[in-house]
Design brief:
The protein is built from no helices and 16 strands. The chain is mainly beta and 182 residues long. The strands form four sheets. Strands 1-5-4-3-2 form a five-stranded mixed β-sheet, with no helix packed on it.
């Protein structure tokens, strides 16, 4: 097990303490965390993590974040971070170029969970407070095309998404209050 050296001298402390933290590791030695409507992206520089981006992409609170699996495709610069807000906005940030690739808006829906496909590049699962789970294909090039492939409806909100990593033939979703569906 290796040690992670975090420089708390440079760590961006938040003034609001009693808020849940959303965090995600990337395959490219990046770490992202969000508190409230602020997000911080850190990079590993010779074994020490230091912030490279700190900003508020939305006026509303960030509800979830997820890194795209960069090992599946070489057509787009990686790493890409998906950031969702409580008001239904979803943006995709190319961290290497510090540019937004595309954004989506789901009206009257709160996005609670995101999960990229481990086997298909540009495929994403989006879970909503209403109990809907959407499996979608994204075109993250200049066309910025979004296509919903499948939609599932559950009797509970979708806070967590998991699936078998080999074929994605079984999908499991759960809510924060203990409801579970396969």
């Amino acid at each position: 097990m290796s040690n992670i050296f975090l420089s708390f001298r440079d760590w961006p402390y938040q003034y609001i303490i009693n808020q849940p933290v959303k965090c995600a590791w990337s395959e490219f030695d990046f770490f992202a965390y969000a508190i409230g409507n602020s997000i911080v992206i850190l990079t590993n520089d010779n074994g020490e993590y230091s912030p490279i981006f700190m900003w508020s992409p939305f006026e509303s609170e960030i509800s979830c974040i997820e890194w795209m699996n960069g090992s599946l495709s070489t057509s787009i610069n990686r790493p890409i971070l998906a950031i969702a807000s409580q008001n239904g906005r979803l943006i995709f940030l190319n961290v290497l170029t510090a540019s937004f690739i595309t954004s989506l808006t789901f009206k009257n829906e709160q996005i609670l969970s995101l999960k990229f496909s481990p086997t298909k590049p540009n495929h994403l699962y989006v879970g909503f407070e209403s109990g809907v789970l959407i499996y979608a294909k994204l075109s993250l090039d200049k066309s910025q095309h979004y296509e919903a492939i499948k939609s599932y409806t559950f009797k509970h909100q979708v806070n967590f998404i998991s699936f078998d990593l080999l074929f994605e033939s079984t999908i499991a979703v759960a809510s924060e209050n203990g409801n579970f569906s396969i």
